[in-house]
Design brief:
This protein has 393 residues and is α/β, with parallel strands linked by helices. The chain has helices at residues 2-28, 37-50, 109-125, 148-154, 213-223, 225-231, 269-289, 309-322, 340-346, 376-392; strands spanning 53-58, 62-68, 76-82, 133-139, 164-171, 179-181, 184-187, 189-198, 202-203, 238-246, 253-254, 257-266, 293-302, 305-307, 328-330, 349-355.
Length: 393
């Protein structure tokens, strides 16, 4: 495989400037979830220029490219990149800032798309040196329920069905040139919680004549902490967080309604179902015990993401061969969510990270997030080698 490694590294270096320019364009013209129409057209033009066939229109903007090597039916590998941006106003001073007001690639999806296009170009150049079929999944709506991954599968986008699906994701704390893997359970499931505490509002100076919905909502938030601290098995990672409370009263007005929004995350489906029932019961009973009522709406979100142990172990070994031991890291579990979890529930999967660390960058999903685009040389080259290693072995 030494010859292949050298060829991939040469091609990665050769294509870097082109792929960086693609990334700059994608970063400047981000589009929100399920609205990635111009992004989709741009990607299709790139695939046309590479001579790679594709089908479009999945979930309106999704694309599935196909590259066939020798003996196309031997194995099928899917490589996925997400396309959508976030409703964030960019707060950076560099020249490539978003030109679409209030929309930003604050999670690195521009890097993912550019990298996959680079990987596709490499694999297409070398298609006489590997066997099987590679599907290129450009997927809309990763950031928004119900999740583009599930919808792509429902529309039959992954055809022929893959023996393995792989994706990579930027990591702003990881040095450029590094990648990271974790076997087995990696990322949490995520459900959205919406509570509405309803009672009789009134004058702040006469709380005895009304239901203090703000106090009741506060008690509910405190009471729900026992879901994690006293009900969760200590061996199961669990997070319950409320990040929004809307109580439109005033200094002397107790509102008739308070809205709460939060998230529940874990890594066990049986506990996930039990916990959501506990959240409902505790919220409703706490409100009832204080003379009010609480409406509970829990939106079932993304499942946990689990990496196939054997394939991920093989991918890590291949990455070490392509890079070296010092540039391949072991990752810890993360309580963040990814709709790639839908794929991982159906197909053997490998979801890994690549470093994009840049001085002055904020974290993911912040207005000051930045990615070092020279990392694209590592990301497209590594993914191309992992693909060929899987297809050849």
């Amino acid at each position: 495989m030494d010859q292949i490694i050298n060829e991939i590294k040469q091609l990665s270096h050769k294509f870097l400037d082109e792929i960086k320019s693609i990334r700059i364009h994608l970063h400047q013209y981000p589009e929100l979830s399920f609205e990635e129409f111009e992004t989709s057209q741009f990607i299709q033009k790139q695939l046309d220029s590479y001579g790679i066939s594709y089908k479009n229109g999945f979930v309106r903007t999704g694309i599935v490219g196909k590259i066939e090597g020798k003996n196309p039916g031997k194995k099928v590998l899917a490589l996925r990149a997400d396309m959508d941006a976030l409703p964030v106003s960019e707060n950076n001073s560099h020249k490539i800032c978003s030109k679409n007001e209030g929309v930003m690639h604050a999670c690195g999806h521009d890097m993912h798309m550019a990298s996959l296009l680079g990987t596709a170009k490499i694999l297409n150049e070398l298609k006489n040196q590997w066997e099987g079929t590679v599907l290129l999944i450009f997927q809309p709506g990763e950031e928004l329920l119900p999740g583009g991954a599930r919808m792509m599968m429902q529309e039959g986008a992954l055809s022929p069905e893959p023996d393995l699906i792989m994706a990579q994701h930027v990591l702003p704390d990881m040095p450029v040139g590094h990648v990271g893997f974790r076997e087995g359970m990696y990322m949490a499931s995520g459900d959205e919680i919406y509570l509405r505490v309803k009672g009789k509002g009134g004058h702040g100076a006469m709380p005895h004549k009304c239901d203090d919905t703000i106090l009741i909502a506060s008690h509910i938030v405190v009471a729900l902490q026992q879901v994690v601290s006293r009900h969760a098995d200590i061996r199961i990672p669990t997070v319950l967080t409320f990040g929004r409370m809307i109580a439109e009263g005033a200094t002397n007005i107790i509102p008739a309604e308070v809205k709460l929004s939060g998230t529940f995350r874990t890594m066990n489906e049986e506990w996930r179902a039990k916990a959501k029932q506990l959240i409902t019961d505790i919220a409703q009973n706490t409100a009832k015990g204080m003379g009010a009522e609480c409406e509970v709406d829990i939106k079932h979100g993304y499942p946990f993401l689990v990496n196939d142990i054997n394939y991920t172990r093989s991918a890590k070994t291949a990455a070490i061969s392509f890079l070296d031991h010092e540039r391949v890291e072991d990752m810890d579990i993360r309580m963040t969510t990814e709709d790639f979890g839908f794929y991982s529930q159906k197909y053997p999967s490998c979801f890994y990270r690549f470093g994009v660390k840049k001085e002055g960058s904020g974290g993911l999903h912040t207005s000051s997030f930045q990615a070092e685009d020279t990392s694209l040389e590592t990301s497209m080259g590594t993914m191309a080698y992992l693909a060929i290693d899987f297809l050849k072995n």
